[in-house]
Amino acid sequence: MAETATTSSKTFAEKHAERMARLKQLHTQRNEARASNHQEVIAEHERKKLPANWESRQRQAEWLMGDLKARTEAEEKGLDYNRVKMLNVSAAEADRIDKLKAKKRNADPGFSDYEAQTARQYNRLVKAMPPRDLVKYEEQKEKYGDAFYGGPNVILQGLHKDTPAAIDNMVKDLEGQIAKRKKFSRRRTHNDDADIDYINEKNARFNKKLERFYGEHTAEIKQNLERGTAI
C-alpha cells in the first residue's frame, strides 16, 4: 500500500511539473508573439511613411545591382554579357521583350488634349533634328546659360544666329509636315449660296474658326461694314 501511494504521488508530481513547464512555454510564446506583433506594427507604420512606389523602386535597384554584378563577372572572364544573359532567357520571354520594345518605339497613345498633342509634336521634332555640331552646341549652352533654353522672361532676338543648314532643316521639316497633312485632309462640301469672303481654302478655314469664336461679338461690326455705315 505504501509503494502504491508513493507511485501515485510521484505521478501526480510529474504531471504537475509537466503542466507548469507547458504553462511556462505558453507564457513565453505569448510574450514572443506580443513582441513580434509590436515590431510588425512599427514596421507597418514606417512603411506607410515611404513613397507609394518604394517597393518597385527597391526591386529595380536590386535588379540593377545584380545585373551590374553579373556584367562585371562576365567582363572579368572575357565573355560577352549580352550573349550570356540571353542564354538564360526563354523564347517566350524574349518574344515578350521584343514586343515591349516595339511598343515603346511606336507608342501612340492617341489624342487626349491639345497640350499633350503639342508636347508629343515637340518631342518628335527634337528627336528628328538633333544638333549636328555637339561641340558648338555645348559651347553655346555654356555661353548663354539659362537664356539658351529661351524661358518666358528671355528675349531671344539677337542671341542666336541661325545657320543656313539649320534653316534648310526647318524648311525640310515643314514641307514634310505639309505633305503628311495633305494625306489626311478630307474634302469638305462646298456651299454655292454662301458668301465668298476668302481667297483660298486655307483662308476659308481660318475665317470659319474666327466666326465660330468671335462671330457673335462682331456681327454688328460686320453688318455695318457691309452697309458702309461703320464709323
SSE blueprint and pairings:
Elements: H1 2-49, H2 54-76, H3 81-87, H4 91-105, H5 114-128, H6 134-144, H7 164-184, H8 201-227
Describe this structure in words.
The chain contains eight helices and no strands. It is mainly α and 231 residues long. Among the domains are: 32 residues; 53 residues; 39 residues, no CATH class. The longest helix has 48 residues. The radius of gyration is 39 Å and the shape is elongated.
Short description:
The protein is mostly helical and 231 residues long.
Structural class by sheet pairing and helices: mainly alpha
Number of helices, where a helix is a run of at least 4 consecutive DSSP H or I residues: 8
Give the overall average pLDDT: 78
Largest sheet: none
**Overall form:** elongated
> Rg from C-alpha positions?
39 Å
Query: Helical percent range?
Result: over 70%
Runs in which pLDDT lies below 50 for 5 or more consecutive residues are none
The end-to-end distance, rounded to whole angstroms, is 138 Å
Number of strands: 0
The SSE string, one letter per element, is HHHHHHHH
Strand content: under 5%
Main location: nucleus
Family: Belongs to the SYF2 family.
Pfam family, one: SYF2
Keywords: mRNA processing, mRNA splicing, Nucleus, Spliceosome
Q: Key features?
A:
mainly alpha, mRNA splicing, elongated, 8 helices, Pre-mRNA-splicing factor SYF2, 0% strand, 231 residues
